[in-house]
Amino acid sequence: MGTKHDADTAFIKALADLLKDSDLTEIEVSRRFGEDDKLEVRVSRQTIQQVMTSQPAAPVAHSPAPQAASAPAAAAEPASNDPVDHPGAVNSPMVGTVYLQAEPGAPAFISVGDTVSEGQTLLIIEAMKTMNQIPSPRAGKVTRIVVGDSEPVEFGAPLVVIE
């Protein structure tokens, strides 16, 4: 059974790579292996830049007066705001829907500024009706939570930045 799971995981990763390398925004596959054995997969891409573009818009609008001081800050800001290239980024191991707390109304697993330990649950990703806890790969301080609660996420997308 572990071999079948490994093959399914490899298949899903291949679909995610195909989505990443093409102009497609969604792939849906349904395979039947026997009467009771089937695999249904939907891989979709959310444009993360659209979400990120709306966040930095407010701080840039607040500081147009001192242009000499804001020009170097604006040049440094895109690198720090791009979690894809950040060395402390924790990326999604799967396609699914992100949940920041165990259940509605419960406290969030983490907040910006929290110190986390290796293996601590950062968030949950629901994939194929299974709740998957995403553990911290290292100890450190949470400096940014890139995703929002109940948002779709693609394979390899940044979730959290830990420094």
Task: Offer a few descriptive terms.
31% helix; 2 domains; OB fold (Dihydrolipoamide Acetyltransferase, E2P); 10 strands; alpha+beta; 30% strand; 163 residues; 4-stranded antiparallel β-sheet
Largest sheet: 4 strands, antiparallel
Kindly state the mean pLDDT as a whole number? Answer: 75
Level-2 CATH architecture of the largest domain: Beta Barrel
Structural class estimated from helices and strands:
alpha+beta
Element pattern in H and E:
HEEHHEEEEEEEE
Q: Estimate the helix proportion, in percent.
A: 25-40%
The percent range for strand residues is: 25-35%
Number of β-strand runs: 10
- Report the top-level CATH class of the largest domain: Mainly Beta
Low-confidence stretches: 47-80
Give the strand order of the largest sheet, numbering strands 1, 2, ... along the chain.
3-10-8-5
Could you say how many structural domains there are in total? 2
As a whole number of angstroms, the C-alpha radius of gyration is 19 Å
> What is the rounded distance between the termini?
38 Å
Q: Overall 3D geometry? A: globular
Secondary structure tally, helices: 3
Compact summary:
This protein has helices at 2-21, 48-62, 67-81, and strands spanning 26-32, 38-44, 89-91, 96-99, 115-116, 121-127, 130-135, 140-145, 152-153, 158-162. The chain has 163 residues and is α+β, with helices and mostly antiparallel strands.
